[in-house]
Amino acid sequence: MKNRLKVLRAERDWSQQDLADRLEVSRQSVNAIETGRYDPSLPLAFKIADLFGLAIEAIFTNPHRENDQ
Amino acid sequence: MKANRAQKRYNRDILVLMVGYAAVLMSVVTYAHGHWPLRGVAGVVLALLPALPIIGVFGVMARYLIEESDEYIRSRFVQQALLATGLTLSVCTAWGFLENFGVAPHVYAYYAAILWFGAQGVVALYGCLARLIGRGEAA
Which of B54, B69, B84 is the last residue of a domain? Predict the structure, then answer.
């Protein structure tokens, strides 16, 4: 699933490890989510959204509406 | 990669079981050498002893799956186990028929576990290489 995680992370000058520590997951998880290799569960997606103070849709692209965006 | 609590526990328990397996196997083989053939209930119990640490490994894996809090790592572990299971069952099925029709020698059933562990290693290595070459793990 496409997402803006890398951009949001860069805006805060966080490394993947910084973000992983804040989310209490591994750096590999952050990398897999950022590159679209892994779609996070809803609880983790909410945790990510909470961390950045955004709605889930503002971070992750709805795959059913990908062509509209 | 920094190991979390579940991973540390998993690594420690696997190591303990493997050391235990080697010790038990050597002890039973040494004993059986002087008391061949093993007989009765004691013989069955002795013959089963080396299997217990291996069975324990499967238990440790199951507990790790429950305790691992990182969902991505957990999903990778499950995928790896499923691929290894598929590979092992395929080889065992094929070998069973080969053996059945007399074109392959008999192989002890516990080799299925050895094959499964080996397959896990191959799948993990392939996954690592695919990630490093394909998309990259770098920050």
Answer: B69
Helix-then-strand count for chain B, H and E: 5, 0
Cβ within 8 Å of A, B 59-98: 69-73, 75
CA distance B56 to B62: 10
Residue A37 to chain B, least CA–CA distance (Å): 9
Neighbour-count burial of A43, counting CB atoms closer than 10 A to its CB (0-12 exposed, 13-18 middle, 19+ buried): exposed
pTM score > 0.90 for this model? no
Q: What is the ipTM of this complex?
A: 0.89
Does one domain contain both B139 and B75? Answer: yes
Can you say how many angstroms the Cα of residue B50 is from the centroid of all Cα atoms in its chain?
A: 13
Domain that holds residue B57: 1-69
On chain B, the residues whose CB falls within 8 A of the CB of A40 are: 71-72
Q: Encode chain A (69 residues) as per-residue pLDDT tens digits.
A: 899 999 999 999 999 999 999 999 999 999 999 999 999 999 999 999 999 999 999 999 988 887 665
Domains, chain A, in order of start with CATH, read 5-63 (1.10.260.40)
Chain A contact present for B134, CB below 8 A: no
CA distance B18 to chain A (A): 27
